[in-house]
Write a structure and sequence with these properties.
alpha+beta; four-stranded antiparallel β-sheet; 20% strand
């Protein structure tokens, strides 16, 4: 894998340091809540956190590959992933459904979509999932009443848009091996930022088909790229996990920039 940029693009050894607002790994006994997640993206006092903790919510459990449709007449519902992985699909008349993003523990499905009216959400579980369902209308009412919550939600949407922009840039500028390496760094950075990863090994139950759809490649091509990265000793993979052996060198070669994704949320 050859370097694609003239200047070295460093990958922070601990990306979770970019969030000075907390960690989702701090209170595993309670589990991941919307207050915990938004608390990573904006400073919130006890009053704001208390308001979020009292939001009406409903637990939702999904089995692997059990498609879930959330249809709303107003704002779409919002789902916090407490455990498991899922993908978000948009219905298309020509090709059925297209996967547009993946989500892991500590992510919120439907947050961006909740800013649009009558926006249906289709969740496709990659693994068994434990979710918490929240009302988009209710959360947006809190946005109007509470500036701290509004800023945290805005920051969350911006960060996830940055992730999508970085992934698109990689797909339009990089060769296939670099695309896959860049995507693995994205997942690694997302885990690190949330405080859910201490070392360089992370769960990765995403199928080659889903990776291929996200990156514009066939599943066979994804498999070959994974093998190439392993042969070059950049990664070590198992059936459901990835270990990054040289994350900083991978970032240098792919131009992955965690500061572009997360740097802005440290600003007051």
């Amino acid at each position: 894998m050859k370097g694609l940029t003239a200047d070295r693009v460093p990958l922070a050894s601990d990306i979770s340091l970019k969030s000075k607002l907390g960690s989702l790994g701090d209170n595993n006994a309670v589990g991941i809540t919307v207050a915990q997640v938004l608390g990573l993206y904006g400073k919130m006092g006890d009053k704001s956190l208390n308001v979020l903790s009292k939001m009406p919510q409903k637990p939702v459990e999904l089995k692997k590959s059990q498609q879930f449709f959330s249809v709303s007449d107003g704002r779409s519902d919002i789902f916090v992933i407490k455990d498991g992985w899922a993908s978000l699909s948009h219905p298309t008349s020509a090709r059925g459904q297209d996967i547009c993003n993946i989500f892991m523990p500590g992510d919120i499905i439907g947050m961006r979509e909740s800013f649009f009216e009558r926006y249906d959400v289709i969740i496709f579980p990659i693994t068994n999932c434990e979710l918490v369902k929240l009302s988009g209308d209710y959360l947006h009412t809190l946005c109007k009443e509470n500036e701290e919550i509004r800023k945290a939600i805005t920051s969350y949407v911006m960060v996830n848009d940055n992730i999508t922009i970085e992934r698109l840039r990689s797909c339009t500028h990089h060769r296939s091996v670099e695309r896959v390496a860049h995507f693995l760094l994205e997942v690694y950075a997302r885990f690190k930022f949330k405080g859910l990863l201490e070392g360089d090994v992370f769960d990765f139950p995403v199928t080659q088909e889903i990776v291929g759809e996200l990156l514009g490649m066939t599943s066979v091509h994804v498999s070959r790229c994974m093998t190439a990265l392993e042969q070059k000793k950049f990664i070590r993979k198992t059936r459901s996990s990835i270990k990054l052996l040289k994350p900083n060198e991978m970032a240098e070669n792919t131009g992955f920039d965690s500061d572009f994704i997360y740097g802005h949320i440290c600003l007051d």
